[in-house]
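Data deposition worksheet. Section B asks for the primary sequence of the deposited chain exactly as it was used as input, without tags or linkers unless they were present during the calculation. Section C holds the resulting structure in token form. Section D is free text for depositor observations; keep each observation to a single sentence. Incomplete worksheets are returned to the depositor.
Section A, Depositor: J.P.
Section B:
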Amino acid sequence: MPTSLIKRIGIALLFFLILNALLGRVETQRAKEELVDTSSYDALTPGEFVGTIALAGFRAMAVDMLWVRAIDLWKEKDWYQALTVYRLISKLQPHFEEAWVTNGWNMAINIAVSKRQKGADAEAWEWVERGLDYLKGGSRGTPRAIISITITAG
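Section C:
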């Protein structure tokens, strides 16, 4: 391995470690001043947590790109691919209510209707239940959102 490549990797690693330390200080200050609700990280599995932290400041950009992809999949009526993209968005931005609502709708309506059109009524009802369960999960991630109030009221 050339020494210039090793130097570049070392500089990139050093840069990442410095940014990570600064990000920790910023997050601490934000939590101290109650600018962010840190409880969303408590609900994440270790793998989700590491993925979220590793993206750091690029998380919003990643969510934006995924959201554009989800819109394209929605237009193409590729419900199962959209399902995957919306789940990823929900994991990266657990307080983003629209991702929870849209994916719950996708499961309970779009996928269920497509199953029903194929004559699989029992499987269609399973997708309706999955969609409602997904919305309930979203209501735990977004406790002050309209989805939470609506789901927990009914």
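Section D:
The two ends are 62 Å apart (CA to CA).
The CA atoms of residues 75 and 94 lie 24 Å apart.
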